[in-house]
């Protein structure tokens, strides 16, 4: 027997329509290229997204077509998310900081007919356009700017197209499993691979993010989205925020601590979301300048492990830090570190240890740690395994690639342990683990301790080949300004915190550590630079 409830497809367009109707005054504030803040509301954005639907139709975009975006976080990028997915087309968010050759590959592989680009990224498109004459027929610039394109490829101005378009119509209704967005993984090995989200997976993931023990904002919250919109749909914030009525603050390209702090204080941010590198940089700036975060209450962090010392430092400023874990293939939310009965009344140290874990599963996804035999290892907090997950917003394969999902459990490439409460702690990416004398050493554990040293600003640990042990850990540190930590002092700092054999033998002090587009440390680059000793 079937239930007698209305059957409505879960469509992305319905999120913005809800926001326009029930949270019409909710704001999206974006920092433009010239530094000026532009301010708009969900009511206006919904109207513009509907206009954009008309523009897309006039540009020849049909349901199922892929449309590229090369843009930072802005209200216009937000409109594109909704306009493109709303007409049943696929919003292919492209990371502008990738090598031009990878960008060309993505546009070609996705088959983007039109790419919308921030003016600053036009030179990239001009350089690669000659390779894309088979696919790309037009570029729309999100502002003022021009570039030379090959014959047959048109350059349009976004606002001119929007001005010429009539008021939009009602959103079309289609199957909720229709593809909505396409995001290519960074591709540290081989070519980037496309993760193809659906309307249904996106709406469900946003609902999971909106739950109290996930990000759970109130309509009165103001969320700073530092995580880029070209990266895993900015972790779903552009969907979750309008769903809840919370306002969104978009920093554009100004991601330096001073700009972020002025945006957060000036715009009364209550929640901020981004990778640890951002919070590390901001903390240094707060310490150096004596400035304060005036309204911020909570930070959500993911993408890389947030060191315990950094969590503690923000807690001392009265700001709660919540760790979350996921990846492009998981839309991204899988675990969030929210307390459970039995984990909320630990003493200060135990609580901090617990807060440094990546967290427990939200409803809608499940996680396992698998041993070498493929069986689940016990939830004892020590048995390590390859993490796999499954759920409503987990990829079942990659765009235009052979089927991958035989078991139904997606292999993450992350290694970790699960404790008796179900909290996952990541030990490493499997490729970043260090294997010394047959024993695994966690680079994350080494890094977390190093950044707790008062003279260390940032740290990375990598494996270096070793004749006797196979591999040994090398610690690479960036000192705090005016400090010069010695190898002996750092090694001494590890005593009692790690088993002797997993303490790095050598420490390299460097001026800076290379980061990828989303602020993660580029371990592969560090191995290339330093692993030969
Ligand atoms: P994102 O950076 O948004 O998480 P990516 O797909 O670029 O998405 O990278 C996913 C990988 O980042 C994960 O497989 C994991 O190795 C790492 N990662 C994500 N969140 C965390 C976290 N909280 N702690 C440690 N590593 C993390």
Task: Label this structure with key terms.
533 residues, alpha/beta, Rossmann fold, GMP Synthetase, Chain A, domain 3, 7-stranded mixed β-sheet, 16 helices, 25 strands, globular, binds adenosine-5'-diphosphate
Describe this structure in words.
A 9-stranded mixed β-sheet has the order 2-1-11-10-12-13-14-15-16, with helices on both faces. The chain has a 7-stranded mixed β-sheet with strand order 7-6-5-3-4-8-9, sandwiched between helices. The protein has 16 helices and 25 strands. The chain has 3 domains: 170 residues, 3-Layer(aba) Sandwich (Rossmann fold); 175 residues, Rossmann fold; 98 residues, 2-Layer Sandwich (GMP Synthetase, Chain A, domain 3). Helix 10 crosses helix 11. With 533 residues, the chain is of the alpha/beta class. The protein starts with 11 loop residues before the first helix and ends with a helix. It is globular, with a radius of gyration of 23 Å. Bound molecules: adenosine-5'-diphosphate (ADP). Adenosine-5'-diphosphate binds next to strand 14, strand 19 and strand 20. The site of adenosine-5'-diphosphate (ADP) has 22 residues, from strand 14, strand 19 and strand 20.
